[in-house]
Automatic annotation (TrEMBL):
Family affiliation: Belongs to the complex I subunit 4 family.
UniProt GO MF annotations: NADH dehydrogenase (ubiquinone) activity; NADH dehydrogenase activity; ubiquinone binding
Entries under Pfam families matching the protein: Proton_antipo_M
Name this protein carries in UniProt: NADH dehydrogenase subunit M
Domain NADH:quinone oxidoreductase/Mrp antiporter transmembrane: 130-420
């Protein structure tokens, strides 16, 4: 059995075992064990990747190719580089943390955990796919469970939020499919056979007119799930209505498919289209960065604050990718990882606060530092990481983005960079505002004096997310080096 297929097989086995569980205790133990195995596999893959790189200088390692549908040259073709390995590790950590945060899920627990793990199957498959069609299939597998997870286990206007999310992402998928088929039918431009293989297509000189036509379709198709302005509106509503673990996976993992797809497919396979269209999407991404931050200031619901913060932070990812240089791209990948851990941590903490106080309105909260100090201190740490304080993952990512962006001598790009950098100040405003209102001062509600203490499984889930945030901030070089060496093929495509 190859090392990558296990990322598909182990979750599927976990789902099959969950079918036969009879109560909450059995369901959560099975889900936890399955997720622990996945995390162990992800950690093992990191070490295996470094060892393999010593003797293997191919673009992708641990590759496997099995014919799926020969007539259209569709293959189950998988492999990883440093970027994929890092995102697989992110996924494994967030999934396990989500299981612990959902430890007391009493409403259809078996079905809930099964849906979460189906989502993770799609994400794992997406990150390891080299075949475009297979990647698209896993993309849909990751998106579809969100409707059920929000529509069944959500709160508030959950049916509306679930339907809005599904319709917008399915619409983006339709646009994406057109882009992928456009790439496929131009993959024989040099006289070879039509193929969905990303590595093979990258060697083909796709005509400029085709690149110019299909790049925006492919970019938008992926970027919608990455909260590209003005197609971001599904995200805040989806976050607000989703249960805690679903918000964690939604923002921490699922939204990363957007930036990864843009990078792996749109920019790698259609580099001339990327150069031609970059100015349009730079404008949209900068608007998203600024708009998301200002919108977060105006919110009073903790989930909406974090949701709009995600729009801003993920706008930085798209902005960095469009800078078309190695330093900015390294920052984009680091930002994807940093945001994944930070936003999952935020949503976990928000869920814990809501479970105890039964409100997410910061105007009704106050003095929580006195009654739930563990949650409050971790919230402050997550906030400091979000605003880019040195020593945390956010600083490492944003420094790479801004330094890489300023390497562009074009005045337009430098002005766009200045606007993006200015958002650091806005981020500090809404983070410190929430900390001041919610955590400091006197306790506003006497009932809050009796809030229950943090449980062992909540602590474990929180620490799983906190350790990488601090670890990347303190010792980022191993991760940065792993990413940088994987960027060379992308840079060559732009030369």
């Amino acid at each position: 059995m190859d090392i990558l297929s296990l990322f598909i097989i182990v979750p599927i086995i976990t789902i099959l075992v969950l079918v036969f569980t009879k109560n909450l205790k059995q369901a959560r133990v099975v889900s936890m064990l399955g997720s622990v195995v996945q995390l162990v596999m992800a950690i093992n893959l990191v070490f295996a990747y470094f060892n393999e790189r010593v003797v293997n200088d191919n673009i992708m390692v641990f590759t496997k190719d099995v014919v799926w549908f020969e007539h259209f040259n569709i293959h189950y073709n998988i492999g990883v580089d440093g970027i994929s390995v890092a995102l697989l590790l992110l996924t494994a950590i967030v999934v396990l943390a989500g299981i612990f945060i959902s430890w007391k899920m009493y409403d259809l627990p078996k079905e809930f955990f099964m849906s979460l793990i189906v989502l993770s199957v799609g994400v794992y498959g997406f990150f390891i796919s080299i075949d475009l069609f297979t990647m698209f299939v896993f993309f849909e597998i990751a998106v579809i469970p969100m409707y059920l997870l929000i529509g069944i286990w959500g709160s508030g206007p959950k049916e509306y939020s679930a339907m809005k999310l599904t319709l917008m992402l399915m619409g983006a998928s339709a646009i994406l499919l057109v882009g992928i088929l456009g790439i496929y039918f131009n993959s024989n431009a040099d006289g070879g056979a039509l193929t969905f293989n990303i590595l093979e297509i990258a060697q083909v000189n796709i005509p400029y007119e085709a690149q110019k036509l299909f790049f925006p379709l492919t970019f938008i198709g992926f970027a919608v799930i990455g909260a590209l302005f003005p197609f971001h509106t599904w995200s805040p509503d989806g976050h607000a209505s989703a249960p805690t673990a679903v918000s964690m996976l939604h923002a921490g993992v699922l939204m990363k498919l957007g930036g990864y797809g843009v990078f792996r497919v749109a920019m790698y396979l259609l580099p001339l289209g990327a150069i031609d269209w970059s100015w349009v999407f730079i404008i949209l991404s900068v608007i998203g960065v600024v708009y998301g931050a200002f919108s977060a200031i105006r919110q009073t619901d903790l989930k909406y604050i974090n949701a709009y913060s995600s729009v801003s932070h993920l706008g930085l990812v798209l902005f960095a990718l469009l800078m078309l240089n190695k330093t900015a791209w390294n920052g984009a990948i680091l930002q994807s990882l940093s945001h994944g851990f930070m936003t999952a941590l935020f949503f976990a903490l928000i869920g814990m606060i809501y479970e105890r106080t039964h409100t997410r309105d910061i105007s009704k909260l106050g003095g929580l530092l006195k009654v739930i100090p563990f949650i409050s201190v971790i919230y402050v740490i997550a906030g400091l990481a979000s605003l880019g304080l040195p020593g945390f993952s956010g600083f490492v990512a944003e420094m790479n983005i801004f330094v890489g962006a300023f390497q562009q001598k074009d005045t337009f790009m430098r002005v766009a960079t200045i606007f993006s950098i200015s958002v650091i100040v806005i981020t500090a405003v809404y983070i410190l505002r929430v900390v001041g209102i919610m955590l400091m001062g006197p306790v506003k509600n006497e009932a809050f004096l009796k809030l229950k203490k943090v449980t062992w499984y909540e602590r474990f889930g929180i620490l799983l997310l906190l350790i990488p945030i601090v670890g990347i901030g303190v010792a980022p070089l191993w991760l940065s080096d792993m990413i940088l060496e994987s960027l060379d093929p992308f840079i060559k495509g732009l030369l």
